[in-house]
Structure formats: C-alpha cells, structure tokens
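Q: My collaborator sent me two sequences in one message, no labels, and asked for predicted structures for both. Can we handle them in order? The first one she listed is below.
A: Yes, handling them in the order given. First sequence, followed by its structure tokens:
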Amino acid sequence: MLVTRIGSGALLLMAALGLAACGGGGEQPQSARKPVQTAASAADADAFVAGINDDYREKLPYFSAAQWAQATYITDDTQLLASRANEEWLEYLSRKVQESKQFNEVDASDDTERAILLLKLSTANPAPSDPAKRAELAKILSKMEANYGSGKWCKAEGECLSLPEIEKIVNDPTATPEARAEAWLGWHETAKPIREDYVRFAELGNEGAKELGFANLGEMWRAGYDMSPAEFDAEVERLWQQVSPLYDALHCHVRGKLNAEYGDEVVPKDGLIPAHLLGNMWAQQWSNIYPLVEPYPGVGSLDVTAALKARRDGEYKRLLSEFKGKPTPLDLAELEHQADAAMAVQMTKIAEDFYTSLGMPALPESFYDKSLLVKPRDRDVVCHASAWDMNMQGDVRIKQCIEPDEEQLSTIHHELGHIYYYLMYNGLPPVFQGAAHDGFHEAIGDVVTLSLTPEHLAKIGLVPQQEIDNKAVINSQMKWALDKITFLPWGKLVDQWRWKVFAGDLKPADYNAGWWDLRAQYQGVSPPVARSEADFDPGAKYHIPGNTPYTRYFLSFVLQFQMQKALCDAAGYEGPLHACDIYGNEEAGKRFMDMLAQGASRPWQETLEKLTGTREMDGSALIEYFEPLLAYLEEQNEGLSCGWEAAKR
C-alpha cells in the first residue's frame, strides 16, 4: 500500500489495483473501493501554515525583484520577466488556497485560522485555476502597468511629455484653462489602449474570486476587514456621512472663488467644477490652487517649496563650482541630475529624522543604496511613489521621482510610514506581515504629516518662525483642507466604480459614463472636454491599471486624525488638535510602535483599541481638527447657492 501526502494536510491511502471480482454479489473487493482520505487535523493545519511561512521567505524576494525591475526599468524584457514571475506567484497562491480548503471544518487555533484567511485574501488579483487563463491574467496586469508607466502625451509639434511633466501644466494655477485642459486631455488619451484589457481583466479576476467562494472580485476585496462585505459597505457609508459636510462646505467656497476668477462661462456659480481647474490631474487634492483661495493673503505664508528649491539650486551651484574645466551641455545635464539626487536624499533624511525622533531605528544603509529617489535620465520608470518590502527581513526601499517641492516632501513622510510599518512587523511570521487592515498602512505616514505644523517647519529650518494668530490658523487649515478634505470623496468613489464593474452593475459599454456619474455625485466635478465610451478615463489613474484597492485611502484619511489625537494625548499635549506636533516624543513613539508591531496578527479592532482605546473607526477627530476652518467656511458661504445636482442618465 502506497501512502501519499496531498499538500500539507490529509493522507490519501492508495491501494494497488487488483483484478475485478466475478459476479454481482458479495462484498466489494478491497482493491475496488474508493480511496480513503483521513480527516485533516489541527496539527496538519499548523503544519500547512508553517509551510506557507517558509515559502513566503523563499519566494517573495524573487517575485519582488522581478516587479521592482519592471517598475524601475521599463522594457519589453522586464515586462516579460515580471509577467512570468507574477504568473508563478498567482499559480502558487491559487494552489495553496485550494489546498487550504481541506481545513475549512478543522477546529484550528485562532492564529492558524487567521493565517489561512489572510492567505485567501493575500492578492487583489485572484487567478483562475486554469493555467492558460492564469497566464493571460498575469500578462494583462503587466501590460496595463507598463502602459501607465511609459505613457506620454506627444504634442502636434512633436514634443513628448511624461506624466510628471504634464502634471506641471495641470497643477499650475497661473496656466490658462485652455492649456490645462489640453494637458489633461493629453494624459487621459494614454489610457485608451487598455480599455479592452480592463474588460478582460474584470472577467478573469471575477472568475478567480468565484473559485474562492466570493460572488465577485469586489466582494472579495471587501471581505478583508474582519466583518462581512455588507457590514463593510455600511461602515464606509457611515464614515462618509460623518465627514461629507466638510467637503460640501469647501466645494461651495472654492467654486465661488473659481467663478470669480474665471467667470460663469468657465465655472458655473451653482454647478459642477471643471476637474482640470483644481490643480491636480485627478482633482483628488487641490493644494496647488491655494493661491487662488487663500483666505488672508500673505498672512503666515509658508513657502516650503521655495526653501527646498533654494537648497537644490545651492547644491547645483556647489557642484558646478567644483567641476574641473568647461562643462559641456551633457556635463551640465549630469550636474543637474546630481543636484536633484542629492536633494532627494536630503529630503528623505528630513522625513527619516521625524521617525527616529520618536525612538524608531535609523533606516538600513541598503535603503539609500537601493531606493530609486529621482527619475533616471536614461530610461522610463513608474514614477508613482511606492514603498517596497523586498524580503520581509529588512530590505526596504521606496520608488519615487522626488522633486524639491512641499507635496513631494509630504509624500516622502507618507512612504516612510509604510517602510517603518514593514520594519516594525518584520519580526512576525510572514503571513502576519501586513497591516491591521489596508487603511492602517496608508494612515501611518499621514499621521506624521499632521505634525508638519508651521512651528515644526520652522523648527527644522524650512520656514521662518511664525507669529500664529487666527488668520494664520485659517490659512494653514485651508491649505491642509485642500489636501485632506478634498481627497475624501475621491478616496471613496474609485472603488465604488470598480465594485459596480465587478458586480456587473456597470457594463463595459458604460464604463466611462459610469465613472463620470460617480465623480459628479461625490466630487461635484465635470470633465473639461466632452467624453465618450471611446475613452477610458479611470485608466488614467495608476491604481486602476495597477489594480490596487483604493478604499484603503479613504479609511486612512479618517484614521490618521483619529490616531493623531490618540498620540497627542499620549504625548501629554494640551491644546487644539491642529497645532499638535509629536516630533521628539518617545512616549507617543512607543505607543505608535507597539501598534505597528502587531501587523495583521490580530483583528483591526483590537489593534486600533491598543492605540486609541476604541474599537471603531471615527471621523470626529477629523472634524475637531478642522473646526476653525469650518466656522470660517460657514461664514463665507452665507448667501451662496451651495451643493450641486449630478446629471441623471
């Protein structure tokens, strides 16, 4: 008799085939009986999870390296390598998820049951079990991401611009509305080629999710929050209703200012705001139009960008003065690049200093050796900022095309939040090396940015010491609100669109119209030019072709204020929440690190309670933070026709 182990669990007893018995009566011969499968045990489940942890340690460095190579060196070759690696990873996950089903009825330990659930939810791209479809899915994913990373707008005169260059036009409030509309359109045109790819991706992703027992891919995504998908829907809507009045008041005020600037023909007094006039390619954050809506011009002015650019220019002048001989144009371009790289490191060090001031460790030397901090001169890369844990053992990196401006400095603080989360939970078994839920991962770095107060920026030498009065507070809050409050509806609607697509409620023939319906409903914005179903405007945002779930960002924008309030309380701070700076407070840092170190090992409610004392996400701290601005907006909006009506199809 041959005993064969199936996966890591049950034993299958296989008898050698014998001759069939003659006649129809009597006992069935042993050789003709069905194989006997022993029941899986709790010990088998523990062994299965231990094997998964070993596999993660062995396999993830290879898969991460392939993805890193594609993102930082976009060629047909790296796209092929990343696609093959992704296919192998999807095959591995699919196989292990299937094997894990043998433990569905096993009374395993809480840790083992949680580990198996996390395995099932470990990818946003569940692959069908069919090898050909799995390969097709991997190829589509690589193609869509490469299309985004290499996308360019080529003008009629022949000049081709990458996304960072196009954004400089859209982000500039001094550029004409026509110039910004042209640039907006140029970038959105780059998404057209992946429209049909996305249709097929949704089909394959749904098939993979159904094999795991979910109705569709959207339901699978919503299952990862220690509550049912229906409960999660209700939770997100509850939070939105809690914070949406702030957005409504800000939208009304900004629309009035833009109407005064551009006139009724460009911005209506009581309708949707054209999306290209809000200082951001996706109208997700509006801080670039702050000069147009600054409540008290010049009061408490904080020109962080000017300070950073001055430092960068000083570095360039130093390099130029040290150059031997007369530099050629190529030499000058290289010196410019070296100055950019040096400034990128300096800005990253500023962010690192905040975390170490809380008692967190210095970043490993390999971080600076291996990170991509500036756009290379010789190749295409995916400039979208991201943080990477390459091996679950300390090889951490960021990928960001850093430029010397305030927004980029804030983004670095955000990305290092991911990095320090990785480092804090690297001691856990690999299956638990993740966030309590994905909103936590996005919130950590943003908690730190809330301490970048005028006093803090003066403390680290980026702005002069400020005289803080009520007008300066309102100006500062307006600037933050154009970043934080304006993001809330965008953070919610991106996945609302995808969930409709995955559920079949939004058909391919209506993809683009459905996208703009949601943008009108939640953001109160409209496209700058007429759109049709020949377009694929959702694909102009990285997270759609990159297939990164997005509700995490909405949750993080609520959680970061809730966490900041708890950390300020731990630091013994007394005063208005918007003025709290936890820099240098090791008690707050200890509370922070204790929470981060739990990773995904416990339900998020327990992890949140460890820091905040409550098991429920809550938007009240966000409202408290912006109380001075809300009072100002209510006063300014008197007599205006606020709100908007989204067109019905």
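Q: And the one she listed second?
A: Here it is, processed independently of the first:
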Amino acid sequence: MTQKNRLQSGGRIDRSKQLTFTYNGKQYKGYQGDTLASAMLANGIDVIGRSFKYSRPRGIIAAGAEEPNAIMQLGATEATQVPNVRATQQELFNGLVSGATNGWPSVDTDVMGVLGKVGGNMMPPGFYYKTFMYPQSMWDTYESIIRKAAGLGRSPLENDPDMYDKVNQHCDVLVVGAGPAGLAAALTAARSGARVIIADEQSEFGGSLLSSKETLNGAPASEWVSFVVDELRGYDDVMMLPRSTVNGYHDHNFLTIHERRTDHIADRAPDGQVRQRMHRVRAKWVVLATGAHERPLVFANNDVPGCMVANAVSTYITRYGVVPGNDLVLMTTNDSGYQAALDWHDAGRRVAAVVDTRKNPSGDRVDAARKRGLNLITGSAVIEVQGSKRVSGVSVAPISADGKSVAGSVTKISADTVASSGGWSPVIHLSCHTGSRPVWNEEVVGFLPGPTVQKQLTAGAINGSYSTSKALAEGQQAALDAIAALGMKAAEVVLPQAVEVNEGQPMTLFHIPHLKSTAKAPKQFVDYQNDVTAAGIELACREGYESIEHVKRYTAMGFGTDQGKLGNINGMAVAASALNKTIPETGTTIFRPNYTPVTFGAIAGRDCGELFDPKRYTAMHKWHVENGAKFEDVGQWKRPWYFPKAGESMQDALNRECKATRESVGILDASTLGKIDIQGKDAREFLGRVYTNAWAKLPVGKCRYGLMCGEDGMVFDDGVTSCLGENHFVMTTTSGGAARVYEWLELYHQTEWPEMEVYFNTVTDHWATMTISGPNSRKLLQELTDYDVSKENLGFM
C-alpha cells in the first residue's frame, strides 16, 4: 500500500530505509525515523481506536506523550504482548506488529459504537455508580463486561522473555528535557565541570527544535543541536539519556528515569541486552526544562478523526514528512497556531480557512498567512465538526468578544482535517510530585510551578517562556545558579542568536460556544481518553461537586494513561465557568508519579525469578545440611526444622529432639532472628517509646524481653534486647519481622521524633546466634569459655 500522505522530501526520516509494519492484520510501509503514529498517518489510517465509554471512532490528535487516543497493543508473539503503548512515542522498526486495543468485531465497525450513539445521553458522569449497584451479586458480571468494553489492552499470557534492570546514580545537575532550554543548561553545567545527567523522552535531543524551521546564528536550528550533542558526548562526566522519561520527582531530589533501551529495535531485546532500565538518581540540583503542551479547543464533535492540535500537524509535516490530510481548517486563539496552516500550505495542500477567534489578529505569522493568500476568518470559531470516521466539514460562525456566545450566521466549509490551538500549558507535572502546588498565571494563561523546598530550578516553556531566545537564556541561567550553589566556577557559554518573532496578544478561550446549550449540543470533549465532555463537567457541578478534585473523580477527568495532559486545563475552565468562579478560585488537581506509564519489568528490574524472593542461609547452614536437616522457610531464611535419622518420621524426630533437650541439652540455630543495632544518647528513651515496657534502668550486660504494639494497639512484634553499653543496644525481632520493625523504627524517628539522637543499623547478617537449652546447657557452655557461667554468676536475662 502506498503512503498517500507522505511528502517526497523533507523531515528527519531516512527514505532509503523502508520498514514494514502490521496494524490490525494488514501490512503497511514506513521509514527509519518514523513513529508508529507518523507511519499510520502517512498510510492514511484514520481510525486507531474507540473511545472509553461511547465507543466513538478516534484518530491521532497529538505527536508526543500527551496523545490520548493512539494507545496501541504491540507484540508479534504472545510473550511479547505490551498493552497501552502510545503510537506517538513508539519508534517504528521492521516487523512491528500493532493493533487497536478495542473494537468488536473490528475497530472500524464496532458494535459498541451503536450503543454509544443510541444510548450515549443515558450515560452521564456517575453512570456506572448509579446503574450497576443492584443487585450486588451481579457486580462481578457487570465488571467483566465493563472491563471488556473499556478496551484498555491486555496483558500477555506467557512469561516476559526480556531482561530489565535498575541503576543507582548520583549527579551534580540533572537536566530534565533536551530542548533549547535543557541543552543550554546541560552545556553550561558540563563546561563548568559538573557531573551532569540529561534525559529526554524523545529518540533524539532537540525538543521543539526537531520540528521547527527556526534558525540559530543564521543556520538551521538542528545544526546547533548537533553541535551541542557532539560536545556533550565528549565529556566523561555527562550521561545522555534519550528515550528516557523522568517519571517521578521525590523528596530530597530523588528522581526516577525510565529508559527504553531496545524498544525501538524489536519487540524482544537482542540477546544479552536489557530492554528497559530504571535509573534511580539522587541529584544535588535539578533543572526542569520540560516544555509545554498545546491545548486543543473544546467544540462540538472535536473528537472526530482528523481533529488534531495545531502543533502536531506541524510536527508531522516538518519532522516526519507527513501531511495528515488534504484540506485543512485551522482554528486558533493565538499566533503560534498559524504555523500549522503555513506548513500545510508550504507542503502543497489546501488550507480551506484559518479561523481566528480574535477580531483583529496581528503578528509575523498572521502577516505570513495573508501574504500566502490564505483565507482568514477573524472573530469567529469552528462551532461544530461534521463527519463520523473522518472529518468531512465544519460549521464556522462569528462569536462574541468574550467568546461566550455565537454572534452571527453559520457558514459550512468542506475539509478533512481540523487543527486547533487554544494556547499552551506548561508541563509542570514533575514540579508537583513533591507536593508543590502550581500557581495560575493570567499572562501565560496556564499554571506555573509553585514554591518548593527541593533544590529545583526551571527554564523555558515550563515558565511560560515560549520563545527560543528566552528558553536558551533561562536554561543557561538555571545552570549558572546551580553551579554557583555547588561552589564551582562557571565556564563561558555563548548562546546562539535566535530570530525573534513578533506575536499579537492571544485570546483566553477554552470552550467554544454553540447555537445550542452545552447539554443539548453535540458532544464537546474535554478528556478524549475517558470520554469526559463539557456537558458532563457542567452536570457534575450542578449535582453539587464544587471541588475540582471531586469533579475529577466523579467524571474521571484526567484518570487515563495521558493523565489529563491535554484536557485538565480545559476541564478546570469549564468547571470554573459552571461554578461562576475564576480558574485560580476553582484550583487545580495535583499530578502524581508516574508522568507516563512504566512497565512492571522496569520497576522490578532483576528482582524476579530466583532473585524475587532470595534464599538466605545462616553461618551454620553447611553443618545442618551435612547432618541431614529438613528446612522450613521463615522470612526468606532456610531454618532447620528437624533432623531425622534413618527410618524416623517427622514426629519421631521431634519426640527424640524434645526428649534430649528436656533431659540433657539442645541447640537451636537462632541466627535468623532479626538484629538491629541501636546507638545514641537517646537510645533508652526511644526504646521506652516503641516498646510497651520500660528500658531506662536496664544495666549494661543485661537483656530484657520487649513487646511492641502497632498504632492500633495490636501486637506488632516482640523480642529480646541486650544492653551492650550505656547508649548501645542490640534488638532482636522475629525472623520474618526484621525489615518491618527496622522500617517502623526509622519511620517514627524521622516523622515523629526527629529531635532524638539515635541511630539504627541492621546487623542480622553480622551475628550468628544459638540458643542452648536444657539442664546440661551450662555444663556445655562452660566447656567453651573460661568465664564462670554458673547460675549465680550468669543469671536469667
């Protein structure tokens, strides 16, 4: 099949390396450098899935991690099945096998789509809670049907054949994002002698510059990117991690990075190679240069395949050489959206109209559109899209100056693609992970990172600084601030000169009005992945959900694998309008790890198979084996259970061993007991708080039995603790409870009594332990030592 939407030239793909891939059982062609999404668009594949609740046809809408629709099932074999992979981030490789995660009997003709079309109005927010509560005995049946209809992919039925691992890292500066701001920060820090890690989720560094026609120092921006990347590769103390998503930002500048090492090669890693790796990084300073996501506008039928965000249209054209349609209508509230129309026109396709919600737009890109003779319709909006499995046309109408109502007659325009731009949302997700609340900025029309106690700096579009020159300057300054805080000498870095683009004032608009009320108009989607509509959010507000956190949970807004990257701001705006509040008054939800989904394999690493539950042996294990011991598993330990002689049953052996102990002497290998070394001037006081009995007067050289209760008053653990010095104790725990007790002690010390000077070290493996019992135990012990172990000299406890 020909790639009907592929340009003959342009882009960063390698047309000399043709690749074959399969989608839903059919073979297609693509090129080295394609993503699965760009290859699908090149081949004219419109429907790539069905929506969560209404089973409506869905197409590709974005070009990166923010993509909500193109969630695919990958894998050529049962063992290599991987669900919910974003086609926009999956690099194409030869032989890639993909399929839609839902749709029966096929994604193009889905039976559930009929139900969604006929009964969609009867499935408002809370539909599942209200409908499937009774009878309770039927819930398991309901759940299986709902789960199958939801179409979230499936897990493999065979064992994963690949290896994964984890690596602990330390660095002076961790740069998150390798766009212009991130590269400027990394270059400055590297030249200054810092240990640097720079990570970016894309296959190559460059960020927005990879799909830009901008120039730096009069040359294509890609040349500067190549120069910086080559220099960074030359530093021994710089680690470069492409295809690596920083998924979590935790306390004390601890971050996790999910590196996809071979996902771009095949669905199974080559022999001897790790498929994915989890980097666990402790950074002295973190520079967040995570960029921004373009917001789509909310309008009627905005989910029909062919509706895309404007920047994605430009990305597919300039980076992948793919024009995803023939006739474009662009709707924008700002100047940056015009770039999609300019790129579309320059690619030789028809721009049916540029619909600008502003009455009198001005700026360099607006002027460029006029010079090209594009049809500009100002003070208007696309209020509705026509089409089912592909856009066939749009309805355009004038709107009021405040954007709240239709102010004129409707005009129909024929088109197969609609691009929309409602502005940009800074990617603040990581900055929220440690509890920092984002702050709304009216000038940026978005949330910016809030105050934080972390050693964190931000640069570029995450700050609402969308020009390349500002991104470069802020990236460099962030690195200089980090270098100064580290006490290092800053090196000189001369930044390239970017061409400044004159832009007009954007219009703050999220929800496009319709001739009908929101509830009666065709569906206007806010969250594409979870089928959350503007009408649904308004209904939730009418039903009494006033907190945005409650609205989120009731409607499921932002609950999907995309975590609301495209829809959250629009949803907050719709809720704010319904509640007659401003967006700052309405507030925002807080993003949590992970930024994008992480495989269980990457989290587990090598801790699987024999290493999942490792066997632990005492120092006397060899002797036990040589003497025929049978073992029991106790908290990962192999502990001797009994020592049968020839012809003895288990009960016979137990009877013999018990009799010998009661009448003479018996020895138990108690090395498996947990042992925690506790030291510090407040050690006695601490023990008195965590145990139910007193410890203040325990003499040196004595030991005492202690009982530990949990917060619920139930017995948590018990054991004997010995006093080795005035401020030095060794606590024993149950064999299976050592780790739990150690964590409990640290938890209470760090959160409840941090002022106490006390230190804990696990020494379970440091000491072998025996219990010697029976009437002849002292006689045996006396043979091993010169110390007087008589009852008078060595009393009980």
